[in-house]
Specification:
Gamma-B Crystallin, domain 1, 13% helix, elongated
Length: 294
């Protein structure tokens, strides 16, 4: 599964020499220190900034950090860039402040990134791919700022990357994703199909431990499960299904007014609560639906 292996190896090495810090805030400080590490060994970092779009006009070439482009008389002049090596962080204000974007390829019009004529500082990072090169990328800070981890497939645990409960914003390039508060796609989950500059808007700031793609065609429409994932013991089920000669059909089983999480055995337990012996069918999806009891 392709992902930023070089960045992750740097990240793992950085954390071998420090004690695991409790809390998301301490984690973010450690990951931020990693981002300021040296560039990957795959090739020398080099970027050329041009004063006009299409890689034209006056230019200046950088091979290392430049926290104030006034030092090379190129502040707020760049309108296109040619990346010859490395992944660069370009920011609208000096000292890597203001609006920032990770750039890992040539951009012939910086207006696409909202930085045309608006770059005041630059930094070469330890990444070998920018966040937009991945299907999904999580950032440690809101507004797509700070250290990030990019993926093209889901992960059952972000702890292995020291990014558990750390993400504050997410950039989605391709796909629809299910993010969950616990490992193995458990706990509270939320379906996200677009980038979010602040995960706090869905109560997931510093609260993502696992994530995976969500296929609506295969899994059905997303319905948020109940908070308690375990179906209750006998006596708590729903009545009022559609009765057949030998079966009972429940389109949308609920318990105490809430949908029931589609866990192993939940459909049969529901049917037993209705006085039947088993569930012979249930629709795919995150919650029980179209349950046929016999």
């Amino acid at each position: 599964m392709p992902r930023d292996l070089v960045a992750q190896s740097f990240l793992a090495a950085a954390f071998l020499v420090i004690a695991a810090a409790p809390g998301a805030s301490a984690q973010k400080e450690d990951i931020e220190a990693f981002r300021r590490g040296r560039p990957p060994v795959s090739g020398p970092a080099e970027i050329t900034l041009y004063s006009d779009t299409g890689l034209r006009g006056a230019s200046v070439t950088l091979t290392g950090d430049m926290l104030k482009l006034t030092g090379v008389n190129f502040n707020d002049k760049a309108r296109s860039v040619e990346v010859k090596g490395g992944v660069w962080l370009l920011c609208s204000d000096s000292n890597l402040r203001g609006k920032c974007e990770y750039i890992d390829r040539t951009v012939r019009n910086l207006g696409e990134a909202g930085l045309s004529g608006n770059i005041s500082s630059a930094q070469v990072t330890a990444y070998d791919r920018g966040p937009r090169s991945y299907d999904i990328a999580f950032f440690a800070n809101s507004n797509f700022r700070g250290p990030f981890l990019g993926f093209d497939e889901g992960e059952a645990s972000l702890s292995q990357y020291r990014f558990n409960d750390t993400a504050s914003s997410v950039l989605i390039t391709r796909g629809t994703w299910l993010v969950c508060a616990d490992n193995d796609y458990r706990g509270t989950c939320e379906l996200i199909d677009a980038s979010m500059s602040d995960l706090g808007a869905v109560q997931f700031n510093n609260n993502i431990s696992s994530f995976r793609r969500y296929d609506t065609r295969r899994e059905g429409p997303w319905r948020r499960p109940v908070a308690d994932p375990v179906y209750p013991p006998a006596g708590g089920g729903q009545a009022g299904g559609v009765r057949g000669e030998q079966t009972m059909f429940f389109p949308s089983p609920t318990w105490r007014g809430a949908r029931i999480t589609n866990r192993a055995g939940a459909a049969t337990r529901f049917c037993e609560d209705q006085g039947y012996s088993e569930a012979v069918y249930k629709a795919p999806g995150s919650v029980l639906s179209d349950v046929l009891c016999r």
